[in-house]
Structures
1.
Amino acid sequence: MTTYTVNGGPGPRLHALVIGVGSYQYGGKAASWGTPLDSLLRELTDLTCAPLSAKYVARWLLEADWSTGPVKLGTVEIVLSPRTAVPWQADDGSAAPEQALFHNVTTAGERWFAQCDAHEDNIALLYFCGHGWGSSRRFLVMEDFGERPGRWTEHLIDFTETRQAMLACRATTQCFFLDACRVDPSQLAYADVRAPSLVPHEVPRDPIGMVPIRNPVFSSARPGSAARAEEHEITPFADALVRTLDGLGAVQRGADWEITTSRLPEALRDVIQWFGPAYAADGFHPDFGDRWDSTVLRRLSQAPLVPFKLSCLPRSALSSANWMLQCLQSRQTLRRTPESKEWQSDAPASSYRLVVTFPDRSHHRVTQHARVIQPPTFEDVVSVTHSPPQRKGR
């Protein structure tokens, strides 16, 4: 059992299911020959980034402060391959997460569904990192996929069916984060793939047989493309997800800062663009649900730190520029002495007085009295005017 209970009290809770599949017993060089699964299995190489990313997301969920929001963290279900020691709460006697074998994953899915179904104001959150297939109908590949090549849909999860089956869950806010490829192997095009759902519940349908979709899916790859990541590193998608939920997706509401479902797509896109520009063009892809209301995922009691980048026009002025940012609320001051590159740092979200001076008098001083720095990121280029050299008297 891999349920980590944080707050089991009454009231709405966020319940998360985190799956990281980094090893494939029957894939890669271990793939058997002479079966219809040959090419599919050979493509299933181990993914060192998958367990790292899943652990990163799970650890953040467990360690983040949920005390000030309307919905507290309830439980986190975690399954990982290869099996690994607990990377969090090392002194509480927690058992290591179970392996991401099909049976373990679907059992965790049943528990997760039951937890989410307990209250209509619950939030259901799913994060998956591993191999995936399908640009329209999507499949998630478990560690023991290919164990019996003659029954090749075993140990495969139909995520499209899962998303629809979750409509039977009373939790009205559901967010799915899929850190996986969306390619279409030729075998899928010619096969009648009938893989099971992660949650074994009937799909509710309206009177004319249509299936309503209300739950957004956030993907690390566009339809038909592969997700990009570096070996032995956290994926750009997992990194951006944690940064966004940690504060870069927040908007100010009075004295508080709130991270809402309506703000999430735009904020995630901007954070990925900032921290992983090489992955942004063919990466992040939100698939919106049909619910237009907004749920508060987290509430922060203080302003989040916002990454910023400041430069000069012309850029050559950077090498002689002194920078100052002074918060109009706290009077906290940030400074930087002349350097030949742009100024990159972090500042609490607020309004600032920006002053750029030039000790060598090469350019005129610039003062901007109220620059707003707010999540997710801030970038600006300050135009400066060249100061002609002073004539020397006789």
Note: The mean pLDDT is 87.
2.
Amino acid sequence: MRMINNEMIKALNNRPYWFAITFYMIFCVLALFRVLIVDARTDLIGSLNDMMGLSIVVVLLMTFIITNNIGLDFKHKSIKFEIISGLTRKEKFISNLVAVAMHAFMLTLFLFLLSEIYYLIVNGHLVLFRLSVLNFFLTYFLWSFIFSCFVNAVVLLTKHGTGAFFIVFVYLIIEVLLVEANVLSLEAEAVEKLSSYLLLGSIFNLLISDLFALESFRTVAIPLLYLVLFSGISYFRIKSMSVNE
């Protein structure tokens, strides 16, 4: 409980964090307005999938939130003080992972509430417990969490929020060039296979998968392996970290 309280206090006192959350909510409202009202859609999941066509905005906001919030640990040397005050390396790792999960949950919760309110305004009723709606938001949370774990691992390795943001941004550009621009001039099947194995491509595939279906296991397996990899990197980084960092 103490670890969760620590992370909540850090987030609540971090003004850029709330600026990014506010920008994220404005983006969601405008995107939902376009697909639900301007395009006169009646299907919530279809509207959300259309909105995710601009998911690069969400990715950049997630990157900013994680690099800014986790980067403060190094800027203010709070890791040193937490460990000196009695927090073990294992507890710090769990605290760090809780912080990442909390950011992913916040993004998912805000999108869920905004989309339900918009759907109620446009269609006059809610769709809270439809299996397709629950599946979308579960996959959205996993998508956010896995990518946030990647960004978190980069922050821990670089020990610098701004530097980590730049590295993640460069990675995004490289993957987009490899897949969307096809700079390697690969055949369509090869590009599709490459996309499904790379980080962004594999986690984006989560958004169009049915987690409740057995055949989706192969789609989910690669992102989960990335999750294990990034969590492992974060754990060993924190275990080997000097208290003076």
Note: Residues 73 and 79 are 6 Å apart (CA to CA).
